Amino acid sequence: MSAVFGIFRFDGLHPRLADLERQSNALAHAGGDRAAIRIVGQTGIGHRLRRLTREDFLDDQPHTSGSLTISADVRIDNRNELAAAFGLDTSTLQKLPDSALIAEAYRHWGANAPEHLIGDFAFVVWDEARRELFAARDHMGQRPFYFHRSSDFIAFASDVRGLWTVTDVPRELDVVALGYDLSRERTARDRSTTFAGIEALAGGSSMLVSTDGATKHRRYWTPSAAPSHLNRDAEYYVRTYRAILGEAVACRVRRSTNPPAVCLGGGFDSGAIASLTCSALPGSKVVGVASVLPPSDPPTGVRRWVSLLADRWPQLDVHWITREKVDILAAFESNFRRTGQPSSPNIYTNTELYAAAAAAGARQLMDGFGGDYTVNPRGRGWPARRLREGRLRLFLRELAAYRRHNRLSWAAVLRREVVMPFLPSGVLRAWLRFQMGLPINGTTAPLSSEMTGRIAGQFGALDFSAPVRSRRLTDMLTEVLARQQGFHAPGGTIHASSLGLELTRPYHDKRVVEFALAIPDELHVKNGVDRYLARTALRDLLPEAYQQRSSSNDVLIPDFSAAFDRIRPDLLREIGRMERSSQDVAKVFDFARMRALAVFRRSAFRRGPEAVPHMTALHAYNFARYVEWFRRDNRPPPDDAP
């Protein structure tokens, strides 16, 4: 990603150049190809550029057009459509960067401009004639946008660290919001972050700020089915699946100046992205990065499926990540310095994957994240939904075919696909947690009772219910997509940027989402085969073996249990140290429960995977160490402003 930043003052003063320069320095990781700042009256706008497309070499941001000044972290996909709307010929369009198209869109449609853009973007427009600042984030929020608003000014940046350098912007954690995020049962939260006084635009939203500081927020898009995709026949959905997902991938790679990279998990989601990328770039190098066991996976593991992809597409240059020498606990702290934020326990593996992609010459990275809640849902609980609808004959036929395809016993398929979806959510939740050594009720995170109460007071009672899989699949997908929109930074975006990459997710493309929500439930599982559309629409692109592949996902860290056993003594020492040394941190976390999760062992009565409580313990340690780091080590630089 590139980076936008700036300050708009309401108090009649001009923004201080020193503040803007510190913002630029704090965001240097996001774009080292070009940096510039422009001050126009009471507004200062800056930009850091990372060149990814041919048009980026034409960019001169902050871009000025008449009374408009624009700074954008952007990739616009519907350039030809916009040019036609603006009356621009082909030769003129070829000379315009995407930021110039945003200027034309804003001049043409004003605050409605984001609705007409397709792509990944976060941008600001200062309109000197109207004395207004306008900001918007793309439909699913693939590019981040943070801001701090006081009575005197609003400061904004693509990364929260671009705000902490501005005089009078608070540099404080909201530990209650942090605990809420750790609880794992979070819901969509428009604008709030884990930092006091700092907000973020949600995906599909915009903001208009006037010179007196009055601010208007608007949600311009929510995930929904496009009417043009509704009530079509099966052939239409198969054909359109390939066309829509193929276009979303092609738009991301066809204008790239460097080989694109794909994180490969061996499943349908990343396999589809890799195959469509290779198809869009015939003969061109495509970088693949995959996390596998050393020296090789078991026959059914990631290495087998990724190797089949590489055999199918010789241009796919695969790099295997095995993690043998990674210090997991040290990797957490490295990530704090790299991103300024806590992360998931997978961070050490993601760092290796991202670094390998960058070392292979990529500047853009895609993954399969989002496939299973857009066009590739795995169909769990599908038979139960058919039974609930009273379609008994279809239920029996599909259940038998599903059992044969997945090689399950009747007992297993009835338990997993029929009985469990109909269990009361409280019973199902309690049973699953008991199996995994987690608390039967309440949050799974080891938070103190004081913190749990503060979370409920600030955010309302948390819902710990297990999902009811007999509900309409489309309703569940819509809820997940809305929750993704509310995240202030998509997982991995800032992390990838710190390693020289733009992370973009084709399954979060507006076109893919609007198509996915129109697909009838019965096309996700057909003739006993889940992921039916992916298998059918991409039959000639995916290796033949994928037609018989199960829908289960391979894990990102295949040796997590062994790795956790190696670090357990160090982790327990660290938990004890934090418990003894910091009363402040002890008010947030329940270290006794964190320790119990870390030493959990599976027994004959508890058959759930050990990885879940161990991952929960590691995740909580990561957050607790982050609180320590933030308050002790994350100090602001000396104030060198005049």
| Helix-residue proportion | 40-55%
Oligomer description:
single chain
Structural class: alpha+beta
Shape: globular
Q: Mind telling me the CATH class of the domain at 227-376 and 475-547?
A: Alpha Beta
| Uncertain ranges | 466-470, 604-608, 638-642
- List the total number of helices: 24
The spatial strand order of the largest sheet comes to 2-3-1-9-8-10
Write down the CATH topology of the domain at 227-376 and 475-547.
Rossmann fold
Distance between the termini: 31 Å
Question: Mean pLDDT score, rounded?
Answer: 89
Query: Count the strands?
Result: 19
Write down the Rg.
25 Å
- Percent strand equals 5-15%
Descriptive overview:
- With 642 residues, this protein is an alpha+beta fold.
- Among the domains are: 217 residues, Aminohydrolase, N-terminal nucleophile (Ntn) domain (Glutamine Phosphoribosylpyrophosphate, subunit 1, domain 1, 4-Layer Sandwich); 223 residues, 3-Layer(aba) Sandwich (Rossmann fold).
- The protein has 24 helices and 19 strands.
- The strands form four sheets. The chain has a six-stranded antiparallel β-sheet with strand order 2-3-1-9-8-10. A six-stranded antiparallel β-sheet has the order 4-5-6-7-11-12, with helices on one face. Strands 15-14-13-16-17 form a five-stranded parallel β-sheet, with helices on both faces.
- Helix 10 packs across helix 24.
- The chain is globular and about 75 Å long.
- The C terminus is likely disordered.
